[in-house]
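Researcher: Next sequence.
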Amino acid sequence: MTTDRIGRGAIPALKETTVDGARLRYAEAGTGDPVVLLHGWPESHRAWQHQIGPLSSRRRVLAPDWLGWGESARDTALSCDYDSEVDRIARMFDALGVDRVDLACHDYGGFLGLGFVQRHPDRVRRLAILNSRAHRTFTPPYRLLFGAFTVGSRHRPTRRLLATPPVYLVHRIGLARYLRNGSFDREKLARYLDVLRTPGGRRWYTHFWAGYEVRIRPELGARLPEITCPTTIVWGTHDPAIPLRTAEELAARIPAAELIRVDADHFLMEERPDEVTAALLRWLDRPAPN
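Model: Next structure:
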């Protein structure tokens, strides 16, 4: 069942389904061919708050909380390694009752989405990637930071440290630049970091990082020329964690890809919502094979 479109900035009541035995919550609006919006770290469907309404005027929009984030289940029995997460997208599509979609994905969602379109090209009609490490990795300071999270989560003494209450405050301070630039307000940032406010949430968080890898994945880069669906790269050019070079490589190596630069930081959908919405509406206008 689909729902009517909603107003700009509004978020419909969440629905739920089951993926890999765990509860997955998602926002849905509009009718027609499906568009799936995959968020990144540490966000939820709310990352797309300003885009869901306008896109729902043309499509059936589905914005899930990826398992472990937002209001979806945090099940430490589920593996968070890259291959498991990418394969989980296909099972999510099945649970949502969609076959072939327009797929827009940001940050961690783009990292997974790139692997998915390479494995399942028949299931992606159009692809949009927004400020994602994609086939590469982070700038050196962020590579060291996230690498410390992964290494720390794999060893018992440091894993216990990462699961203590102060980790919430550390992240709140670390993301303060996005309060200053207007990407988030305090309430929204608190929602994103709610996972770190309970013992169970922190246990899942260390589980996530234990399965994550910051290394470059050369196999993803090698297969970029195989992506034949209409692809748009939308990029905030002031991202301190992911260089513009990544976007330029994606645009150069994916056939017929276009690059749209936005005067924004990493969380561009929230910092520059009108520009990102316009870019995605233009993306949906790109002709795609039936």
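Model: The first strand starts at residue 15 and ends at 19. The mean pLDDT is 96.
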